[in-house]
Amino acid sequence: MHAPQAPGLFGLLAEFDNPQALVNAADAARRKGYKVMDGYSPFPVEGLREALGKPRTLLPVIVFCGGLTGCLTAFLLQTLTSGGHPREWDAFIPNWFNYRLNIAGRPFFSWQAFVPPIFELTVLFSAFTSLFGMILLNGLPRPHHPLFEVKEFERASSDRFFLCIEATDPLFDIDETHEFLKGLSPITLSEVPQ
User: What's residue 95's pLDDT?
Assistant: First the structure.
């Protein structure tokens, strides 16, 4: 294990001009043994997550749970308010909430009429869960990141691709990592201050 030789260093940043070069560099770094690294690009790059060795995100599971919660919330709310619940539940439900309405002679538990609100709440809860889950999983809000101090990184949102190996990586050694990244033929190679 090497400790970073330069105090106050966040990592080393290599710049590439095409997505395939970034994927190849990330794959080479992962095979070399680097684990604490990340890739940056102006658009999603197929194969980059695998090349970086990043696990799949939990977001789909979280969104599914949010949607299921919305579905059950809508179903239970409609069942309890329409009086479609079993009579044994009456002891636990306040009278102001348990007001049965017989509309056009339909049964109290008319689940077919529940479908549109169930769909709407499922979508609503899924959307909110997706938004807030993504924000939390991405560690946002983060108004400042050390990479913003590197001038070249401004092009990460337009036409350049970057690989950053962070100084917290157990294999990180400023000289060895610099030589390794240089061997990948980047356009530029920059030190990222903390």
Answer: 67
